[in-house]
Structure formats: C-alpha cells, structure tokens
C-alpha cells in the first residue's frame, strides 16, 4: 500500500511539474484527478471504520479444562453506506481462541454474526479482547485501523477426574458418636423433628409425624461423626519439573494435562476435592500460590468453587519448602483428622514432618508425583525410595507418573498401605 501511494505521489508531482513546464492544462487535470483519487480513497477507508458497533457475549465466565468456551459476536453497521470489507483482529489471551475474521461485504445497516467454540486446554484467568478493526479502500492505497479496548475475563478451572475408590473413605472420630450440633444440610444422623418453617426443603418433611400431628413436621439433623479432611498442596517452584509443550493439535474433548508435575498436582488436588465434597464431607485446603491460602473445612459446592478458583489462579512461584508449609500449618490438623499431602518433592525434610503428623494421631495420605517420569529430575533419589520411606513412617501413599490415567492411579489398586496400619 505504501508503494502504491508513493507511486501516486510521484505521478502527481510529475504531472504538476509537466504542467508548469509546458503550460498545458491536461497535466494539471491529471494531477488533480489523482489527488482527488487519494482523498476519495482515504475517506472511503475512514467511512468503512465509522458507524460500526461490535458486541461479544459468552454464556459463562467460568469454565473448566476439557470443556468448551462458546462466544458469540455481532458486527453491526449503522451507516447508509455499504462496507465492502472489514477485518476483525482479536487480542484475547485464551489459547487457540480464533475470533479474528474477515467480514464479508455489509449492506447499509447490515449485520454479520459469527460464533467461536474454543476448547479450554489450560487453567488460569484469560482476557477476552480487545479488538482491532481494519479496513481500506478498493484501490489498496490506505489501510486504517480502529482499536476497541473493551475486555472481559474468563476463568478456567483445572481439570477434574472422577475418582471412584480413593482412600480413605473412613476417618471416624474417636468414639464414633455424632456431634451434638444442628446441621442445616441433610446428614446420616437424624436428631428429631420440629414444626415446618418457611424455607424448609420438602425432602425434609417427616410424613408420619405430619399425619399424626395434623401439621407439617420436618426432620432435624446433626453433624456426622466423620473427621475433617485437609488437602495440603506443594507448589514450591524448586520441587516441580516441566517439559516444553504445545497445546496445538490436542483432540477436542480430551482432558489434557501439560507435561508439568505442578499441573498434575493441581489436577489431583482438584479431583480429590470434588470427590469428597460431592459426598458432603468436610474439607479444608492449604496451598501457597505463592500467597498463603487456607480455606477452613466446609462442605458443598461453594467450598469446591473456592478451591477451584484458588487452583485456577495458582502460580508455581512459591519459594517455601513443603516441609515449612507442613510445620506452619500443622496446628490446623487435629487428632483424628485426615491430611492428604500432594507433592513431587523428594526431600527428607517434609517426610519427617509427615511422620510427626502420624505420631500426633493424624491420618496421613501422600500422593507422590514422580519427577523422573517427566524426563527431568531435581533429585537423585527415585520416587520408589521416597514412597518406601513414607510407608515406614505410617503414611499411606499413591504414586503418580507422567502419562498415568489419574482415575486408575488414584484407585485402591495402586494404594500402598504403610508398613504398620495407622487406622
């Protein structure tokens, strides 16, 4: 385009010089004609970008690895002049989000709509937008752009894998008796009945008592005797390994885990959280992401959403060794609680902390990720040796390697019980 404009500029100067030299109006007319052509072309390109509105809508601002983000875009012309061509350039940070398109010619007040279905392959918070509109004239002299800075964010939760028989399922509080505290949700321990109050769920109505007393009666429940669970996730940057990877070419619908021990650890923590919270177990969560995140034990979907949001935004930048994390947060773990430790660290320091928790009466389950299986290792010690040391101290362990099916790797078939039973 610049070459074409330079050629026209040269011709205009040449025609005007020829006109002054010869005194013939023919050369002046040619110069004025080319000058008007340049002005007309610039105005054409300018009008193509004016009176244009573009909107983009997404069904949700929360999605998950393995699912699809659907976005719908509309480009509307508000001009009486047709738009011969427009190009939309997208600056979203979501991988493989292909919004950019060349819009076909638009009639006066016409509209063009298109949709984009992007498989989410990486967790994190991503930006949608801004946009740049580009257009030009029919002769190719000018190409003008207009930037639309409006942006929005979408949060992609980590992948969750269904776990059928992850241990432990027990963890009953010593004595096995129900806690004498009323629960606002349904548990296995019915404590009695009371009069119906507005807002009570119909599935809590006790129909026999209702028929006997001739008024609506609902069941009351107490907290169950199962102990609390805690997930402690190691995101120390020095303990994790990763290989270069590219998300292009991944089959849509597959749960893709990058070749990074940290991403495996995050997916494992998310899957275990979903496994127990769906069963209405009380679950707490601890991780340094690198900021300290401690979620006190709670139940239900709201707790799961908090954990997934924390994991989606987690960065593997913490310099705090896992041993120090366990030492700092051990006061959260009461006797009889279940601590699930997820780490790829082969260091002896956190193994000693795990053994101390066992001696304090905490049931410890370790999910050990083998760094050697990723082709990179931060320690000469093999994962099998670390697992054996954990088992000698009374820690139940799982061993996960790169490429493993997490559902199978975290099943009872791959469970390694300690040398001496702890519960």
Question: Mind explaining what this structure looks like?
Answer:
The protein is elongated and about 105 Å long. Helix content is 28%, strand content 27%. It has four domains: 2-49; 52-157, Immunoglobulins (Immunoglobulin-like, Sandwich), CATH 2.60.40.10; 179-223, no CATH class; 229-414, Rossmann fold, CATH 3.40.50. It has helices spanning 2-22, 25-49, 207-213, 261-278, 300-313, 322-329, 348-359, 383-392, 406-409, and strands spanning 52-58, 62-64, 68-77, 86-90, 101-103, 111-119, 124-128, 131-136, 143-148, 152-157, 179-183, 189-195, 217-223, 229-233, 283-288, 292-298, 338-343, 363-369, 396-400. It is built from nine helices and 19 strands. The strands form five sheets. Strands 16-15-14-17-18-19 form a six-stranded mixed beta sheet, with helices on both faces. It has a four-stranded antiparallel beta sheet with strand order 5-4-8-9. Strands 1-3-6 form a three-stranded antiparallel beta sheet, with no helix packed on it. Helix 1 (2-22) runs antiparallel to helix 2 (25-49). Strand 14, helix 4 (261-278) and strand 15 form a beta-alpha-beta unit. The chain is of the alpha/beta class.
Summarize the structure.
By secondary structure, the protein is an alpha/beta fold.
């Amino acid at each position: 385009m610049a070459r074409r404009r330079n050629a026209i500029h040269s011709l205009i100067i040449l025609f005007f010089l020829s006109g002054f030299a010869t005194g013939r109006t023919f050369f002046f007319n040619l110069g004025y004609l080319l000058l008007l052509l340049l002005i007309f072309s610039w105005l054409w390109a300018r009008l193509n970008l004016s009176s244009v509105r573009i909107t983009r809508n997404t069904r949700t601002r929360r999605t998950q690895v393995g699912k699809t983000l659907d976005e719908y875009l509309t480009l509307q012309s508000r001009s009486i002049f047709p738009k011969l061509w427009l190009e939309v350039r997208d600056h979203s940070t979501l991988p493989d989000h292909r919004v950019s398109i060349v819009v076909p010619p638009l009639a006066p007040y016409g509209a063009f709509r298109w949709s984009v279905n992007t498989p989410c392959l990486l967790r994190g918070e991503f930006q949608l937008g801004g946009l740049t509109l580009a257009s030009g004239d029919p002769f190719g002299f000018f190409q003008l752009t207009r930037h639309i800075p409006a942006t929005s964010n979408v949060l992609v939760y980590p992948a969750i894998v269904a776990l059928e028989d992850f241990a432990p399922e027990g963890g009953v509080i010593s004595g096995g008796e129900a806690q004498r505290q009323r629960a606002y949700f349904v548990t296995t321990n019915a404590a009695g009945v009371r009069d119906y109050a507005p807002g009570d769920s119909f599935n809590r109505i006790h129909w026999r008592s209702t028929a006997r007393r001739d008024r609506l009666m609902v069941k009351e429940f107490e907290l169950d005797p199962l102990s609390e669970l805690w997930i402690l996730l190691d995101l120390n940057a020095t303990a994790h390994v990763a290989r270069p990877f590219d998300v292009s070419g991944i089959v849509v619908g597959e749960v893709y885990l990058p070749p990074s021990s940290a991403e495996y650890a995050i997916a494992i923590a998310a899957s275990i959280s979903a496994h127990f919270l769906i069963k209405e177990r009380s679950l707490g969560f601890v991780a340094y992401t690198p900021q300290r995140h401690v979620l006190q034990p709670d139940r239900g979907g709201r707790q799961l959403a908090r954990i997934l949001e924390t994991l989606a935004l987690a960065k593997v930048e913490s310099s705090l060794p896992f041993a120090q994390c366990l030492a700092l947060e051990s006061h959260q773990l009461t006797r009889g609680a279940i601590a699930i430790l997820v780490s790829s660290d082969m260091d002896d320091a956190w193994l000693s902390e795990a053994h101390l928790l066992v001696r304090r009466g905490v049931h410890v389950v370790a999910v050990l990720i083998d760094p050697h299986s990723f082709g990179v290792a931060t320690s000469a010690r093999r994962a099998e040796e670390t697992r054996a040391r954990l088992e000698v101290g009374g820690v139940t362990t799982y061993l996960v390697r790169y490429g493993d099916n997490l559902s199978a790797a975290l099943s009872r078939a791959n469970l390694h019980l300690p040398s001496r039973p702890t519960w």
